[in-house]
Amino acid sequence: MTLTSATSETVTDRWRDATRPQDSAGWILRAEEVSDILAADAVERDRAGAPPHAEVALLKASGLVTLLGPTEHGGGGQDWATAYRVIRIVARGDGSIGQLLGYHYLWAWAARLVATDAQISAVEQLYTEQNLLFGGAVNPRDSDLVITEDGDELVFTGSKSFSTGGVVSDLTVLEGVLDGTETHVFAIVPTDQPGIVFGHDWDSLGQRLTESGSVEIRGVRVPWEAAAGFVDRVFQPLVYNTLNVPAIQLVFTNFYLGIAEGALERAASYTRENTRAWPYGGDDKARATDEWYILEGYGQLQSKLWADAALIDQVGDEISALLHAPREELTARARGDVAVRIAAAKARIIEDGLELATKVFELTGARASANAVGLDIHWRNLRTHSLHDPLPYKRREVGVYTLLNEVPEPTWYT
User: Fold this and answer.
1) Please, what CATH class does the domain formed by 8-132 belong to?
2) If you average pLDDT over every residue of the chain, what do you get?
3) Boundaries of each Acyl-CoA dehydrogenase/oxidase N-terminal domain copy (predicted)?
4) Distances from the Cα of 153 to the Cα of 43, 95, 191, angstroms
5) How far is CA 44 from CA 32, 49, 293, 315, in A?
6) Which residues, including other chains, have CB under 8 Å from residue 370's CB and lie 6 or more apart?
7) Which residues are 135's β-sheet partners?
8) How would CATH label the architecture of 239-404?
């Protein structure tokens, strides 16, 4: 049963009468169901490159969209440690959809990161009760959106070259600078409005279904009272505000791991079913699964992924504790300690994941390079998004921490 078949409605309807998961283990199982559905036709959907409306419907029907939402509004009430594992599992089946879900979780948490208590309550009730998906127009490498004041309203204008998930989102996070000042303002607005115009120009090597193309913001109006974190038009800063970057960097890290795990699973299945032993080495085997170099190769790759997962889970538990603690308690040092460990985890999985996504071709054989097999999708996906920000700077952050005991200064990328 696949999303590209005529049975896609049946797929997304499968949980209609199911009991909602009540704990982390239950949500992990639900994510595994979603991942299996996505994996079944991931290659075909990647080749087609259509906007992932059916995939988003699957995420919504499964309940994963409201995993972090308050239970009193029908959400899962789970913590970030669980959310990170769910992102990874979904990415095993389809790296693009793992990215969409991870970005959604971060933007859904944006209110908690910067907003007032009243704004947090309103946003979380809205998206949880209505099962809404977030996108964002917050690419820091572009010029900031310009915000002008018009009485009791703010008017956002400008463009962004990336807007992951925007085309299939219900809500969009905007960020800009108040004209004539250095004051940054975040706001959450409905996506379906004339002032948000998508370029439909996402045409990348990998992560093809993330709809990460450009967007123009043409005079989108937001009430001043909806400016996140502002009281009487003055922002109320907290160190907690700066957790957005390490939180999303670990989102990246987890869907990278999921992509790599998916590559290993697909390659191992192919080797068991299709790869032939090499008959010219002087140590002939009847089956490829008896070949020592194949066994050694899979053993090496699996060992690296297990080590990566151990670090990623550990730091995921650490930042989850900070994200769910009282916002006023976070210190700059605690934020920096976890940020640098996330940098280390990200560096490791990028290196190991790219090695794995290449090495599997040596372990599966020449026929596995056929487009129909689709092993290339994993390398393309990981190679594409791992260029998000330069890896050497992550290693440098870890080096400065190790040698000088200094934590990274908060920026849009650290």
Assistant:
1) mainly alpha
2) 96
3) 38-119
4) 46, 39, 18
5) 20, 9, 31, 35
6) none
7) 172
8) Up-down Bundle (1.20)
